[in-house]
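Severity: low
Component: inverse-folding endpoint
Summary: output formatting inconsistent between runs
Steps to reproduce: submit the following C-alpha coordinates with default settings.
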Protein backbone atom coordinates (compact mmCIF):
# COMPACT_ATOMS: atom_id res chain seq x y z
CA UNK A 1 0.00 0.00 0.00
CA UNK A 2 2.87 2.37 0.63
CA UNK A 3 3.70 2.10 -3.05
CA UNK A 4 0.09 3.00 -3.90
CA UNK A 5 0.16 6.03 -1.60
CA UNK A 6 3.45 7.17 -3.08
CA UNK A 7 2.01 6.98 -6.60
CA UNK A 8 -1.04 8.88 -5.38
CA UNK A 9 1.22 11.56 -3.89
CA UNK A 10 3.06 11.78 -7.20
CA UNK A 11 -0.26 12.61 -8.91
CA UNK A 12 -1.75 15.19 -6.52
CA UNK A 13 1.21 16.23 -4.38
CA UNK A 14 1.94 14.73 -0.94
CA UNK A 15 0.04 17.49 0.88
CA UNK A 16 -3.15 16.40 -0.90
CA UNK A 17 -3.02 12.78 0.26
CA UNK A 18 -4.41 12.59 3.79
CA UNK A 19 -3.58 9.49 5.81
CA UNK A 20 -3.58 10.35 9.53
CA UNK A 21 -6.69 9.57 11.56
CA UNK A 22 -7.06 13.25 12.47
CA UNK A 23 -6.87 14.42 8.86
CA UNK A 24 -9.22 11.76 7.49
CA UNK A 25 -11.77 11.95 10.36
CA UNK A 26 -14.08 14.55 8.71
CA UNK A 27 -14.32 12.33 5.60
CA UNK A 28 -14.98 9.12 7.57
CA UNK A 29 -18.21 10.08 9.35
CA UNK A 30 -21.50 11.01 7.69
CA UNK A 31 -23.52 14.16 8.45
CA UNK A 32 -26.02 12.33 10.65
CA UNK A 33 -23.23 10.45 12.45
CA UNK A 34 -24.78 7.08 11.66
CA UNK A 35 -21.95 5.65 9.56
CA UNK A 36 -18.36 5.59 10.73
CA UNK A 37 -15.92 4.48 8.04
CA UNK A 38 -12.15 3.97 8.00
CA UNK A 39 -10.69 5.12 4.68
CA UNK A 40 -7.37 3.88 3.36
CA UNK A 41 -6.61 7.57 2.66
CA UNK A 42 -8.23 10.70 1.26
CA UNK A 43 -6.99 12.02 -2.09
CA UNK A 44 -7.78 15.59 -3.15
CA UNK A 45 -7.24 16.07 -6.90
CA UNK A 46 -6.76 19.63 -8.13
CA UNK A 47 -7.86 19.10 -11.75
CA UNK A 48 -9.88 16.74 -13.95
CA UNK A 49 -6.58 15.32 -15.26
CA UNK A 50 -5.46 14.49 -11.70
CA UNK A 51 -8.86 12.93 -10.97
CA UNK A 52 -8.50 10.76 -14.09
CA UNK A 53 -4.97 9.72 -13.10
CA UNK A 54 -6.22 8.68 -9.63
CA UNK A 55 -8.98 6.57 -11.16
CA UNK A 56 -6.48 4.90 -13.54
CA UNK A 57 -4.15 4.12 -10.63
CA UNK A 58 -7.03 2.72 -8.56
CA UNK A 59 -8.13 0.52 -11.46
CA UNK A 60 -4.60 -0.81 -11.95
CA UNK A 61 -4.27 -1.60 -8.25
CA UNK A 62 -7.94 -2.63 -7.73
CA UNK A 63 -8.54 -0.02 -5.03
CA UNK A 64 -12.17 1.05 -4.48
CA UNK A 65 -13.07 4.75 -4.69
CA UNK A 66 -15.65 6.65 -2.62
CA UNK A 67 -16.33 10.04 -4.23
CA UNK A 68 -17.10 12.73 -1.69
CA UNK A 69 -18.38 16.27 -2.15
CA UNK A 70 -19.60 18.34 0.81
CA UNK A 71 -20.41 15.19 2.84
CA UNK A 72 -23.97 16.36 3.57
CA UNK A 73 -25.59 13.10 2.43
CA UNK A 74 -28.29 12.06 4.87
CA UNK A 75 -28.10 8.39 3.87
CA UNK A 76 -24.40 7.53 4.20
CA UNK A 77 -23.86 7.70 0.42
CA UNK A 78 -20.42 9.35 0.67
CA UNK A 79 -19.01 7.39 3.62
CA UNK A 80 -16.41 4.65 3.09
CA UNK A 81 -16.80 1.28 4.78
CA UNK A 82 -14.74 0.24 7.81
CA UNK A 83 -12.34 -2.05 5.91
CA UNK A 84 -9.55 0.52 5.64
CA UNK A 85 -9.25 -0.37 1.94
CA UNK A 86 -11.42 2.29 0.24
CA UNK A 87 -9.94 5.54 -1.03
CA UNK A 88 -12.06 8.65 -0.50
CA UNK A 89 -11.65 11.06 -3.42
CA UNK A 90 -12.67 14.51 -2.18
CA UNK A 91 -13.58 16.95 -4.94
CA UNK A 92 -13.27 20.18 -2.96
CA UNK A 93 -10.17 21.43 -4.83
CA UNK A 94 -12.02 21.40 -8.17
CA UNK A 95 -13.28 24.92 -7.58
CA UNK A 96 -13.08 26.77 -10.89
CA UNK A 97 -15.96 28.68 -12.43
CA UNK A 98 -14.96 27.76 -15.97
CA UNK A 99 -17.44 29.86 -17.93
CA UNK A 100 -20.55 32.01 -17.68
CA UNK A 101 -22.37 32.57 -20.98
CA UNK A 102 -25.13 35.08 -20.27
CA UNK A 103 -26.43 34.98 -23.85
CA UNK A 104 -26.78 31.21 -23.70
CA UNK A 105 -27.84 31.38 -20.03
CA UNK A 106 -25.33 28.74 -18.92
CA UNK A 107 -22.79 28.36 -16.16
CA UNK A 108 -19.93 25.85 -16.36
CA UNK A 109 -18.41 24.98 -12.99
CA UNK A 110 -16.16 22.33 -11.55
CA UNK A 111 -17.62 19.69 -9.28
CA UNK A 112 -16.18 21.01 -6.00
CA UNK A 113 -17.81 24.44 -6.27
CA UNK A 114 -20.38 24.69 -3.47
CA UNK A 115 -23.99 25.23 -4.42
CA UNK A 116 -23.89 28.64 -2.74
CA UNK A 117 -20.82 29.66 -4.74
CA UNK A 118 -22.57 28.61 -7.96
CA UNK A 119 -25.64 30.66 -6.98
CA UNK A 120 -23.41 33.67 -6.21
CA UNK A 121 -21.51 33.37 -9.51
CA UNK A 122 -24.82 33.34 -11.36
CA UNK A 123 -26.13 36.33 -9.40
CA UNK A 124 -22.99 38.36 -10.07
CA UNK A 125 -23.69 37.83 -13.78
CA UNK A 126 -27.30 39.00 -13.28
CA UNK A 127 -28.75 35.49 -13.53
CA UNK A 128 -30.37 32.92 -11.24
CA UNK A 129 -29.18 29.39 -10.61
CA UNK A 130 -32.33 28.20 -8.84
CA UNK A 131 -31.35 25.03 -6.97
CA UNK A 132 -31.71 25.90 -3.26
CA UNK A 133 -31.15 23.59 -0.27
CA UNK A 134 -30.60 24.24 3.44
CA UNK A 135 -27.15 22.62 3.03
CA UNK A 136 -26.12 24.91 0.17
CA UNK A 137 -23.14 26.43 2.02
CA UNK A 138 -21.47 23.00 2.21
CA UNK A 139 -22.86 20.73 -0.50
CA UNK A 140 -21.09 20.76 -3.85
CA UNK A 141 -22.30 20.74 -7.44
CA UNK A 142 -20.85 17.22 -7.94
CA UNK A 143 -22.82 15.97 -4.93
CA UNK A 144 -25.96 17.78 -6.10
CA UNK A 145 -25.65 16.07 -9.48
CA UNK A 146 -24.91 12.66 -8.02
CA UNK A 147 -27.99 12.81 -5.78
CA UNK A 148 -30.22 14.60 -8.30
CA UNK A 149 -30.85 17.15 -5.56
CA UNK A 150 -34.20 18.88 -5.23
CA UNK A 151 -34.94 21.52 -2.58
CA UNK A 152 -37.37 24.37 -2.31
CA UNK A 153 -37.69 25.61 -5.91
CA UNK A 154 -38.31 22.32 -7.75
CA UNK A 155 -41.96 23.27 -8.21
CA UNK A 156 -40.92 25.94 -10.69
CA UNK A 157 -37.45 25.00 -11.95
CA UNK A 158 -37.14 21.23 -11.53
CA UNK A 159 -34.47 19.06 -9.89
CA UNK A 160 -30.76 19.04 -10.67
CA UNK A 161 -31.48 16.68 -13.57
CA UNK A 162 -33.63 19.32 -15.25
CA UNK A 163 -31.08 22.05 -14.52
CA UNK A 164 -28.14 20.30 -16.21
CA UNK A 165 -27.12 20.62 -19.86
CA UNK A 166 -23.70 18.98 -19.86
CA UNK A 167 -21.25 16.95 -17.76
CA UNK A 168 -17.58 16.05 -17.66
CA UNK A 169 -17.07 12.65 -16.05
CA UNK A 170 -14.07 10.44 -15.31
CA UNK A 171 -15.27 6.94 -16.16
CA UNK A 172 -14.28 3.98 -13.94
CA UNK A 173 -11.57 3.04 -16.48
CA UNK A 174 -10.02 6.51 -16.19
CA UNK A 175 -11.14 7.90 -19.56
CA UNK A 176 -12.80 11.32 -19.49
CA UNK A 177 -16.24 11.69 -21.06
CA UNK A 178 -16.50 15.35 -22.09
CA UNK A 179 -20.14 16.27 -22.67
CA UNK A 180 -19.93 19.84 -21.46
CA UNK A 181 -21.97 21.36 -24.26
CA UNK A 182 -24.58 23.95 -23.35
CA UNK A 183 -27.23 22.72 -25.79
CA UNK A 184 -30.94 22.73 -25.10
CA UNK A 185 -31.59 20.52 -28.10
CA UNK A 186 -29.55 17.56 -29.36
CA UNK A 187 -31.03 14.48 -30.96
CA UNK A 188 -27.76 12.67 -31.68
CA UNK A 189 -28.50 9.52 -29.72
CA UNK A 190 -28.82 8.74 -26.03
CA UNK A 191 -28.40 11.46 -23.43
CA UNK A 192 -25.51 9.83 -21.58
CA UNK A 193 -25.15 12.52 -18.91
CA UNK A 194 -28.42 11.32 -17.40
CA UNK A 195 -26.70 8.06 -16.38
CA UNK A 196 -24.45 9.88 -13.93
CA UNK A 197 -27.09 12.19 -12.45
CA UNK A 198 -28.54 10.44 -9.41
CA UNK A 199 -26.00 7.58 -9.63
CA UNK A 200 -24.48 8.47 -6.24
CA UNK A 201 -20.92 8.15 -7.51
CA UNK A 202 -21.34 4.51 -8.54
CA UNK A 203 -20.72 5.04 -12.28
CA UNK A 204 -17.95 7.63 -12.38
CA UNK A 205 -16.43 10.79 -10.92
CA UNK A 206 -18.16 13.97 -12.07
CA UNK A 207 -15.56 16.71 -12.49
CA UNK A 208 -17.54 19.57 -14.10
CA UNK A 209 -21.02 20.53 -15.29
CA UNK A 210 -22.77 23.03 -17.52
CA UNK A 211 -25.90 24.28 -15.78
CA UNK A 212 -28.95 26.28 -16.87
CA UNK A 213 -29.38 29.86 -15.75
CA UNK A 214 -32.59 31.86 -15.53
CA UNK A 215 -33.54 35.54 -15.30
CA UNK A 216 -32.95 36.93 -11.83
CA UNK A 217 -36.41 37.72 -10.40
CA UNK A 218 -36.79 41.33 -9.30
CA UNK A 219 -39.91 40.65 -7.23
CA UNK A 220 -40.71 38.12 -4.52
CA UNK A 221 -43.92 37.73 -2.57
CA UNK A 222 -43.59 35.44 0.43
CA UNK A 223 -46.24 34.49 2.95
CA UNK A 224 -46.79 32.01 5.73
CA UNK A 225 -50.31 30.90 6.56
CA UNK A 226 -51.99 28.42 8.86
CA UNK A 227 -54.49 25.89 7.50
CA UNK A 228 -56.71 23.43 9.32
CA UNK A 229 -55.68 20.30 7.46
CA UNK A 230 -53.54 18.96 4.66
CA UNK A 231 -56.53 18.66 2.31
CA UNK A 232 -56.86 22.44 2.53
CA UNK A 233 -53.14 22.83 1.80
CA UNK A 234 -53.47 20.80 -1.40
CA UNK A 235 -56.51 22.86 -2.46
CA UNK A 236 -54.39 25.97 -1.95
CA UNK A 237 -51.56 24.54 -4.01
CA UNK A 238 -53.89 24.02 -6.96
CA UNK A 239 -55.57 27.38 -6.43
CA UNK A 240 -52.21 29.16 -6.40
CA UNK A 241 -51.13 27.34 -9.55
CA UNK A 242 -54.35 28.32 -11.30
CA UNK A 243 -54.02 31.96 -10.21
CA UNK A 244 -50.25 32.52 -10.51
CA UNK A 245 -49.04 29.83 -12.93
CA UNK A 246 -45.27 29.57 -13.14
CA UNK A 247 -44.77 32.43 -10.70
CA UNK A 248 -45.51 29.98 -7.86
CA UNK A 249 -41.92 29.09 -6.94
CA UNK A 250 -42.20 27.34 -3.57
CA UNK A 251 -44.95 25.71 -1.56
CA UNK A 252 -43.65 24.23 1.69
CA UNK A 253 -45.57 22.46 4.43
CA UNK A 254 -44.80 22.25 8.17
CA UNK A 255 -46.92 20.18 10.56
CA UNK A 256 -47.76 21.04 14.19
CA UNK A 257 -45.14 18.71 15.74
CA UNK A 258 -42.47 20.23 13.54
CA UNK A 259 -43.53 23.72 14.66
CA UNK A 260 -43.17 22.54 18.28
CA UNK A 261 -39.63 21.28 17.59
CA UNK A 262 -38.75 24.66 16.04
CA UNK A 263 -40.28 26.51 18.98
CA UNK A 264 -38.14 24.49 21.41
CA UNK A 265 -34.87 25.27 19.65
CA UNK A 266 -35.64 28.62 18.02
CA UNK A 267 -38.26 30.30 20.19
CA UNK A 268 -39.93 33.22 18.48
CA UNK A 269 -39.10 32.13 14.94
CA UNK A 270 -42.56 30.80 13.94
CA UNK A 271 -44.99 33.75 13.78
CA UNK A 272 -47.90 31.58 14.99
CA UNK A 273 -48.89 27.95 15.41
CA UNK A 274 -51.45 26.01 13.35
CA UNK A 275 -52.24 22.37 12.50
CA UNK A 276 -50.27 22.95 9.28
CA UNK A 277 -48.24 25.95 8.16
CA UNK A 278 -47.72 26.62 4.49
CA UNK A 279 -44.85 28.76 3.23
CA UNK A 280 -45.63 30.25 -0.16
CA UNK A 281 -43.30 32.12 -2.47
CA UNK A 282 -44.05 33.77 -5.79
CA UNK A 283 -41.30 35.30 -7.90
CA UNK A 284 -41.33 37.34 -11.08
CA UNK A 285 -39.79 40.24 -12.95
CA UNK A 286 -41.47 43.60 -12.46
CA UNK A 287 -42.89 45.25 -9.40
CA UNK A 288 -42.58 43.58 -5.96
CA UNK A 289 -45.41 45.57 -4.35
CA UNK A 290 -47.89 44.55 -7.06
CA UNK A 291 -46.91 40.89 -6.73
CA UNK A 292 -47.25 41.06 -2.95
CA UNK A 293 -50.64 42.77 -3.22
CA UNK A 294 -51.97 40.07 -5.52
CA UNK A 295 -50.80 37.30 -3.16
CA UNK A 296 -52.34 39.07 -0.16
CA UNK A 297 -55.60 39.54 -2.10
CA UNK A 298 -55.63 35.82 -2.99
CA UNK A 299 -54.99 34.82 0.63
CA UNK A 300 -57.79 37.09 1.84
CA UNK A 301 -60.26 34.97 -0.13
CA UNK A 302 -59.09 31.70 1.44
CA UNK A 303 -60.08 29.66 4.44
CA UNK A 304 -57.06 30.74 6.49
CA UNK A 305 -56.47 30.33 10.25
CA UNK A 306 -53.76 32.97 10.48
CA UNK A 307 -51.22 34.43 8.12
CA UNK A 308 -48.38 36.85 7.55
CA UNK A 309 -46.98 38.25 4.31
CA UNK A 310 -43.36 39.46 4.30
CA UNK A 311 -43.19 43.23 3.87
CA UNK A 312 -39.43 43.47 3.49
CA UNK A 313 -36.45 41.36 2.49
CA UNK A 314 -35.57 40.83 6.16
CA UNK A 315 -39.10 39.56 6.91
CA UNK A 316 -38.84 37.27 3.91
CA UNK A 317 -35.47 35.97 5.14
CA UNK A 318 -36.99 35.33 8.58
CA UNK A 319 -39.73 33.13 7.11
CA UNK A 320 -37.17 31.18 5.13
CA UNK A 321 -34.85 30.88 8.13
CA UNK A 322 -37.67 29.13 9.93
CA UNK A 323 -37.90 26.60 7.13
CA UNK A 324 -34.14 26.17 6.86
CA UNK A 325 -33.65 25.62 10.59
CA UNK A 326 -35.91 22.58 10.69
CA UNK A 327 -33.21 19.95 10.00
CA UNK A 328 -30.83 21.35 12.63
CA UNK A 329 -33.65 21.74 15.21
CA UNK A 330 -34.61 18.14 14.62
CA UNK A 331 -31.04 17.06 15.12
CA UNK A 332 -30.94 18.92 18.46
CA UNK A 333 -34.28 17.41 19.42
CA UNK A 334 -33.00 13.84 19.47
CA UNK A 335 -33.15 10.80 17.24
CA UNK A 336 -35.97 10.01 14.85
CA UNK A 337 -36.45 7.47 12.09
CA UNK A 338 -36.30 9.62 8.99
CA UNK A 339 -37.99 9.24 5.63
CA UNK A 340 -37.68 11.30 2.46
CA UNK A 341 -40.78 10.14 0.65
CA UNK A 342 -42.86 11.36 -2.27
CA UNK A 343 -46.29 10.47 -3.60
CA UNK A 344 -48.42 12.20 -6.22
CA UNK A 345 -49.48 15.48 -4.56
CA UNK A 346 -53.12 14.38 -4.82
CA UNK A 347 -52.28 11.41 -2.55
CA UNK A 348 -50.54 13.40 0.21
CA UNK A 349 -53.65 13.73 2.42
CA UNK A 350 -54.34 10.00 2.26
CA UNK A 351 -50.72 9.18 3.03
CA UNK A 352 -50.66 11.46 6.07
CA UNK A 353 -53.98 10.14 7.37
CA UNK A 354 -53.56 6.41 6.76
CA UNK A 355 -49.87 6.07 7.54
CA UNK A 356 -50.24 8.17 10.70
CA UNK A 357 -53.11 5.95 11.88
CA UNK A 358 -51.17 2.73 11.14
CA UNK A 359 -48.11 3.97 13.03
CA UNK A 360 -50.22 5.09 16.00
CA UNK A 361 -51.91 1.68 16.15
CA UNK A 362 -48.58 -0.17 16.18
CA UNK A 363 -46.59 2.33 18.32
CA UNK A 364 -48.88 4.08 20.82
CA UNK A 365 -47.64 7.59 21.60
CA UNK A 366 -45.78 7.84 18.30
CA UNK A 367 -44.68 11.35 17.31
CA UNK A 368 -44.54 12.17 13.61
CA UNK A 369 -42.71 15.30 12.52
CA UNK A 370 -43.61 16.02 8.91
CA UNK A 371 -42.48 18.86 6.71
CA UNK A 372 -41.31 19.32 3.17
CA UNK A 373 -41.86 20.31 -0.37
CA UNK A 374 -45.60 19.72 -0.70
CA UNK A 375 -45.59 21.24 -4.15
CA UNK A 376 -43.59 18.19 -5.29
CA UNK A 377 -45.51 15.65 -3.16
CA UNK A 378 -42.30 15.28 -1.11
CA UNK A 379 -42.48 14.99 2.68
CA UNK A 380 -39.70 14.54 5.20
CA UNK A 381 -41.56 12.23 7.53
CA UNK A 382 -39.75 11.58 10.78
CA UNK A 383 -40.98 9.12 13.38
CA UNK A 384 -40.07 8.84 17.05
CA UNK A 385 -41.50 7.35 20.24
CA UNK A 386 -40.30 6.43 23.70
CA UNK A 387 -39.75 2.73 24.08
CA UNK A 388 -40.39 0.98 27.39
CA UNK A 389 -37.20 0.13 29.27
CA UNK A 390 -35.30 2.79 27.29
CA UNK A 391 -34.70 0.43 24.39
CA UNK A 392 -33.12 2.00 21.35
CA UNK A 393 -35.64 3.63 19.00
CA UNK A 394 -33.74 2.17 16.03
CA UNK A 395 -34.47 -1.41 17.19
CA UNK A 396 -37.89 -0.75 15.65
CA UNK A 397 -36.61 0.99 12.53
CA UNK A 398 -37.42 -1.90 10.20
CA UNK A 399 -41.00 -2.17 11.49
CA UNK A 400 -41.53 1.59 11.14
CA UNK A 401 -40.01 1.66 7.65
CA UNK A 402 -42.17 -1.25 6.48
CA UNK A 403 -45.33 0.58 7.55
CA UNK A 404 -44.27 3.88 5.98
CA UNK A 405 -42.96 2.42 2.71
CA UNK A 406 -45.92 0.05 2.28
CA UNK A 407 -48.22 3.09 2.41
CA UNK A 408 -45.97 5.12 0.10
CA UNK A 409 -45.75 2.40 -2.57
CA UNK A 410 -49.46 1.59 -2.36
CA UNK A 411 -50.02 5.23 -3.36
CA UNK A 412 -47.53 5.10 -6.27
CA UNK A 413 -44.70 6.84 -4.39
CA UNK A 414 -40.97 6.54 -3.80
CA UNK A 415 -38.80 5.96 -0.73
CA UNK A 416 -36.09 8.41 -1.82
CA UNK A 417 -37.46 11.63 -3.29
CA UNK A 418 -34.38 13.84 -3.17
CA UNK A 419 -31.79 12.67 -0.63
CA UNK A 420 -30.76 9.49 -2.46
CA UNK A 421 -30.48 5.89 -1.31
CA UNK A 422 -26.89 5.48 -0.11
CA UNK A 423 -26.32 2.81 2.53
CA UNK A 424 -29.38 3.68 4.58
CA UNK A 425 -32.05 2.62 2.10
CA UNK A 426 -30.29 0.10 -0.13
CA UNK A 427 -32.09 -2.97 1.26
CA UNK A 428 -35.43 -1.17 1.07
CA UNK A 429 -34.79 -0.22 -2.53
CA UNK A 430 -34.19 -3.89 -3.36
CA UNK A 431 -37.55 -4.68 -1.75
CA UNK A 432 -39.67 -1.99 -3.39
CA UNK A 433 -38.08 -1.03 -6.72
CA UNK A 434 -39.27 -2.73 -9.89
CA UNK A 435 -36.89 -5.74 -10.30
CA UNK A 436 -36.59 -5.14 -14.04
CA UNK A 437 -35.55 -1.52 -13.46
CA UNK A 438 -32.94 -2.69 -10.95
CA UNK A 439 -31.68 -5.37 -13.34
CA UNK A 440 -31.19 -2.77 -16.09
CA UNK A 441 -29.34 -0.44 -13.70
CA UNK A 442 -27.04 -3.28 -12.59
CA UNK A 443 -26.34 -4.12 -16.25
CA UNK A 444 -25.22 -0.51 -16.84
CA UNK A 445 -23.05 -0.69 -13.72
CA UNK A 446 -21.37 -3.90 -14.95
CA UNK A 447 -20.70 -2.33 -18.36
CA UNK A 448 -19.15 0.86 -17.01
CA UNK A 449 -17.52 -0.52 -13.86
CA UNK A 450 -16.89 -4.26 -14.35
CA UNK A 451 -14.54 -4.40 -11.35
CA UNK A 452 -17.10 -2.73 -9.06
CA UNK A 453 -14.62 -0.12 -7.84
CA UNK A 454 -16.86 2.97 -7.84
CA UNK A 455 -18.49 3.56 -4.45
CA UNK A 456 -19.06 -0.11 -3.58
CA UNK A 457 -21.37 -1.07 -0.73
CA UNK A 458 -24.10 1.36 -1.80
CA UNK A 459 -27.26 0.39 -3.68
CA UNK A 460 -25.99 -0.81 -7.08
C1 LIG B 1 -29.43 20.37 6.58
C2 LIG B 1 -29.59 19.61 5.29
C3 LIG B 1 -30.62 19.93 4.43
C4 LIG B 1 -30.77 19.25 3.21
N1 LIG B 1 -31.78 19.61 2.38
C5 LIG B 1 -31.89 19.00 1.19
C6 LIG B 1 -32.93 19.37 0.28
O1 LIG B 1 -33.77 20.23 0.55
N2 LIG B 1 -32.97 18.75 -0.91
C7 LIG B 1 -32.05 17.79 -1.26
O2 LIG B 1 -32.12 17.29 -2.38
N3 LIG B 1 -31.10 17.39 -0.41
C8 LIG B 1 -30.99 17.96 0.80
N4 LIG B 1 -30.01 17.56 1.66
C9 LIG B 1 -29.12 16.43 1.31
C10 LIG B 1 -27.77 16.79 0.69
O3 LIG B 1 -27.37 18.10 1.02
C11 LIG B 1 -27.83 16.61 -0.82
O4 LIG B 1 -27.99 15.24 -1.11
C12 LIG B 1 -26.60 17.15 -1.59
O5 LIG B 1 -26.90 17.14 -2.96
C13 LIG B 1 -25.33 16.34 -1.34
O6 LIG B 1 -24.21 17.06 -1.83
P1 LIG B 1 -22.75 16.84 -1.23
O7 LIG B 1 -21.80 17.64 -2.03
O8 LIG B 1 -22.75 17.08 0.22
O9 LIG B 1 -22.54 15.31 -1.54
P2 LIG B 1 -21.93 14.15 -0.62
O10 LIG B 1 -22.77 14.00 0.61
O11 LIG B 1 -20.49 14.35 -0.41
O12 LIG B 1 -22.16 12.89 -1.58
C14 LIG B 1 -23.44 12.49 -1.95
C15 LIG B 1 -23.32 11.39 -3.02
O13 LIG B 1 -22.77 11.92 -4.20
C16 LIG B 1 -21.53 11.27 -4.54
N5 LIG B 1 -20.66 12.31 -5.05
C17 LIG B 1 -20.32 13.49 -4.48
N6 LIG B 1 -19.57 14.21 -5.31
C18 LIG B 1 -19.40 13.48 -6.44
C19 LIG B 1 -18.74 13.67 -7.67
N7 LIG B 1 -18.08 14.81 -7.95
N8 LIG B 1 -18.77 12.70 -8.60
C20 LIG B 1 -19.45 11.54 -8.37
N9 LIG B 1 -20.11 11.30 -7.22
C21 LIG B 1 -20.09 12.27 -6.27
C22 LIG B 1 -21.07 10.63 -3.25
O14 LIG B 1 -20.28 9.48 -3.50
C23 LIG B 1 -22.40 10.25 -2.62
O15 LIG B 1 -22.86 9.07 -3.19
C24 LIG B 1 -29.87 18.21 2.89
C25 LIG B 1 -28.84 17.87 3.77
C26 LIG B 1 -28.69 18.55 4.95
C27 LIG B 1 -27.56 18.18 5.86
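Observed output (run 2 of 3):
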Amino acid sequence: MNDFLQQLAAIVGPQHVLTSATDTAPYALDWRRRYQGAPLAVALPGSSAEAAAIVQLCRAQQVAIVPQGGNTSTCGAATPDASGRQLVVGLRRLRAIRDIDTDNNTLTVEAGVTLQEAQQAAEQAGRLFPLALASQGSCQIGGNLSTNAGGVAVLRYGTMRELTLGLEVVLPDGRVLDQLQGLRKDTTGLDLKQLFIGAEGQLGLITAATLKLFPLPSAHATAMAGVADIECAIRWLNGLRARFGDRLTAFELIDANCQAVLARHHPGLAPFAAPWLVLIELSDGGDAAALNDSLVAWLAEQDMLDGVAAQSESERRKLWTLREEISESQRLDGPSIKHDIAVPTSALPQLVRDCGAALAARFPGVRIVAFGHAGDGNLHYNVSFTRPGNLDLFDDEAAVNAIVYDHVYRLGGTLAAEHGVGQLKKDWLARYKDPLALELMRGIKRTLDPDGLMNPGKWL
